[in-house]
Design goal:
Elements lengths: L5 E3 L12 E4 L3 E4 L9 E3 L11 H13 L25 H13 L9 E5 L6 H14 L3 E6 L15 H11 L4 H14 L8 H16 L13 E5 L23 H17 L6 E6 L3 H12 L6 E5 L6 H19 L10 H11 L3 H11 L6 H9 L9 H14 L4 H20 L4 E3 L2 E3 L6 H8 L5 H6 L6 E2 L11 E2 L2 H8 L21 H14 L12 H15 L3 E4 L2 E3 L22 H7 L1 E5 L6 E4 L4 H7 L7 E4 L7
Length: about 650
């Protein structure tokens, strides 16, 4: 490009209106804004980064492109995590000090490592510790990037692997001490490869993180040196599987599992810390799941080159003392809110009993305090209710925690109804999540999202106010979104509560208790079928919408079709519905494109053909009870559903 030239340094070039020139190699030279080059100019081999004209506009566009691929809620200080648990003041001091010592002085260890695995049973406060460590590291300038997985709350990207590397790269690019050298190279990588975000995670790590670091040759910041910095990955065991659905994919191929994706992330991080250009320490927090422990076993115990260090949250860190401080502080806050409580309430013996029941589980302490603070009854009555719960003498900590969950549910006005709603929400949420294909809404496509709390309430209510009866007493377990946030899901404060809901043995206590509001069905699936049938027969929610606006109608309809029967078009006029709710709702694609006011007319006039390989087609009217229809079709292997044109009723 530059021929027959005299020697000239880049910083001496001051010309206008020429084409851009960018060279990536040992030196990085960027002339932007249309600077006009001369045929008699020679660029020296020294490394320069010269930005003129519209280069800042180009970089801003690349930042936006990278930001679009970020799991925004996974950052430690995201708005989505505003209520995330943190260590209470003066608690978990010992474990935090050990982590900080490893971050700042780990090179002085007898066997230095660049990766720390923080692990422990459910409820031991791993996420709270990681959140507090991330805050402190950011304050001290030690934090490079974070990713907080969550399988039970927040945005879908927080439970999948696909945004991990891009989220880390974005934070590195934004870091004040890295933006000038590392950050610009990250953005150049984004601009150089339009298909980068569709590549495998390993390739993304190479191109977005490792290659930019390698080109810096140790000069990461403006001063040429880098303060010790750390990358924090929390909740790795909550990363769920990300399936690719290809029409030509063989049915015999074994599908990926969440364990595969979690091990893939671990492998990529281990390869990164082995790269000499990678200057960061990495902290990974997770439960001690078998496959994760197996992965770490050799890397934490190798006699000559242990690559990782394990920090297990056990009695060594004296959790009982920290839980005692937590209870003392929280009860003091409650006393200040209620003047009628005596200054010694509830007494040291009561606190000691609560600490014993907690058995080192901070989630028990947090849930118990949340229940005491529930405004449905005075705090002393709420506390007395918890103290009266009985546990087996040989009960393990997890059983005691589950007994607390059962006790809180039993405190609701209609416990069977509450449990039924919880399990129905859980099953429908999983149905949406497991359908990893794009769900169509008219001509547009979107990824599966969490089930809307507003929509679920409208689908489930048979009487006005039933939702308040069912779930209103669970504020210590669930965060309820504002009524005007139609798209927001329920957020469960701790994963162990979802583990409890998924344990079928925990539902036995509900079978002998009749519901005061409605009669429970034999299982959750028939109940969902009945609610779907009622919605169809009512041509909308059984309880009229309040407010009854076009926006609310349209949103309910848009959620109703894919939630109760996510589907995809196989061929013109033929739709396949996935299990387990494949046979629940026949849906006609044309309904999606209609205006809300046309919905009720369509629901009352459509007819469908349900068929399988062996059975003859059965004509099913939409206004017929879906529950009765399914009994008639019991045993049929329904594979396809073909829509007929609207016909006249007979």
């Amino acid at each position: 490009m530059f021929n027959n030239v005299a020697s000239l340094h880049v910083d001496e070039v001051r010309q206008n209106n020429a084409r851009d020139y960018t060279h990536y190699d040992e030196s990085v030279i960027t002339l932007q804004g249309g600077a006009q080059y001369s045929s008699n100019v020679h660029i020296s081999a020294k490394e320069y980064i010269q930005t003129v004209g519209s280069d800042s506009i180009r970089l801003d566009a690349l930042k936006d492109k990278l930001y679009a691929k970020v799991a925004k809620g996974a950052l430690h200080n995201s708005a989505e995590r505003c209520d995330a648990p943190k260590c209470h003041e003066q608690t978990r001091v010992a474990v935090q000090e050990e982590i900080f010592s490893w971050i700042t002085n780990g090179d002085r260890d007898a066997q230095p490592t660049k990766l720390l695995w923080v692990t422990g049973p459910a409820g031991t406060g791993k996420t709270a510790i990681m959140g507090s460590v991330a805050d402190s590291c950011q304050k001290d300038g030690l934090l490079a990037a974070t990713f907080f997985f969550s399988s039970f709350s927040g945005s879908p990207d927080r439970r999948l692997k696909r945004r991990v590397i891009t989220t880390l790269a974005y934070q590195l690019q934004q870091h004040p001490s890295l933006a000038h050298n590392v950050g610009k190279r990250i953005l150049n990588a984004v601009g150089a490869d339009p298909g980068l975000f569709d590549k495998a995670l390993k390739d993304q790590m190479d191109e977005l993180v490792l290659n930019p670091l390698r080109r810096c040759k140790g000069r990461y910041g403006d001063s040429g040196s880098l303060t010790p910095m750390v990358i924090i990955i929390d909740g790795l065991d909550e990363c769920e599987v990300y399936q690719f659905h290809e029409p030509t994919q063989s049915k015999r191929k074994v599908p990926r599992t969440k364990e595969d994706d979690q091990e893939e992330i671990l492998s990529i991080l281990f390869e990164a810390i082995e790269d000499q250009a990678f200057p960061f320490r990495v902290i990974i927090a997770s439960r001690p799941e078998r496959h994760i422990r197996r992965f770490f076993s050799g890397k934490c115990t190798h006699p000559n080159r242990g690559m990782a260090r394990e920090l297990f949250l056990d009695e060594k860190y004296n959790p009982d003392a920290d839980i005692t401080l937590f209870f003392q502080s929280k009860f003091a806050q409650i006393r200040r809110q209620y003047d009628h409580l005596p200054p010694t309430w509830p007494g040291e013996d009561v606190i000691a009993l609560l600490v014993k029941n907690a058995s080192g589980q901070f989630v028990y302490a947090a849930t118990a305090i949340g229940f005491v603070q529930t405004p449905s009854s005075p705090p002393q009555i709420q506390l007395e209710y918890i103290l009266k719960l009985r546990y087996r003498t040989e009960a393990n900590p997890l059983e005691i925690l589950h007994a607390l969950y059962i006790g809180i549910i039993k405190s609701c006005p209609d416990p069977p109804l509450t449990f039924q709603w919880l399990q129905a929400y859980r099953q429908l949420s999983l149905q949406v999540r497991e359908s990893k294909e794009a769900l169509w809404m008219g001509p547009a496509k979107r990824d599966p999202e969490d089930l809307s709390a507003w929509f679920f309430g409208r689908l489930s209510e048979s009487l006005a106010g039933e939702g308040d009866v069912a779930l209103g007493g669970l504020v210590s377990l669930i965060r309820f979104p504002p009524p005007d946030r139609l798209e927001s899901p329920y957020q469960f404060y701790h994963r162990s509560f979802l583990d409890f809901l998924d344990d079928r043995t925990r539902s036995r206590w509900t079978r002998s208790q009749p519901s005061r509001v409605t009669t429970p069905y034999a299982g959750i699936k028939p109940w969902i079928m009945e609610r779907t049938s009622r919605t169809l027969m009512s041509k909308g929610p059984e309880v009229p919408l309040t407010p009854d606006t076009p926006r609310h109608k349209q949103y309910f309809m848009a959620q109703f079709l894919p939630t109760v029967g996510p589907h995809r078009e196989q061929s013109p006029g033929v739709v396949c519905l996935p299990q387990p709710l494949a046979a629940i709702l026949p849906v006609r694609r044309a309904l999606v494109d209609r205006e809300p006011e046309d919905w009720s007319t369509s629901l009352g006039s459509e007819a469908f053909v349900v068929s399988d390989v062996q059975a003859s087609p059965l004509r099913v009217s939409m206004e017929q009870s879906l529950h009765t229809s399914m009994q008639a079709l019991e045993g049929a292997d329904i594979a396809q559903l073909q829509c007929l044109r609207p016909r006249e009723r007979t």
